[in-house]
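hi support,

uploading two proteins for the ticket. first:
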Amino acid sequence: MYSTSQLRDRRCSVVAIPVTPFAADGEVDEQCYQSLVRLMVDGGITVLTPCGNTGEYYALSPAERRRVVELTVAAAPDAVVVAG
């Protein structure tokens, strides 16, 4: 858990919104998504907003949105995750 000041400091940096990739069958490509999240974190991103304001949000069911947030937390355990 982060203190209020730690959260404030992190939010003063880049808050990235990863795009949710889809597989050929129309399902969320979980492996590709987690690779993208790890790439962002490895590049210095410390705050992620899955299901942010990117267009695919509207194509996801509530269960898929929840899964994308879970995938983000699993792929970036040290990042602050703000669900969109």
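and the second one:
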Amino acid sequence: MKQYASAEEFARDLPGIAEGMRDQLKGHDGTFCLKLKDGRNYSVELKDGLASVSETENAAAECTVTADEKALMDMINGKLSPVKALLFGKVGVKGDVMKLKNLMSLL
């Protein structure tokens, strides 16, 4: 699995990752917002097995994840369990947590 150095790099690759998992993602549509504590935001839309990403905040997202970039990258790179990240306050989740599992399946 590729290791990502930044949220920007991951966001750029996310549509390609989803393309490779298109069959598994079909039927798991959702909108997400990744809010970094430094003020950067990434909106992700999963639809029909494809992902699109924009560098904006989506106030209407079904699930919003808030974290500092290090914690987010540690989760994405498999160095930090999402459950531990939540339990220890490294990330916050607002909205439909079950939708989040669809996004996490891309990891």
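thanks. also noticed: Helices lie at 7-20, 22-25, 69-76, 82-87, 97-104.
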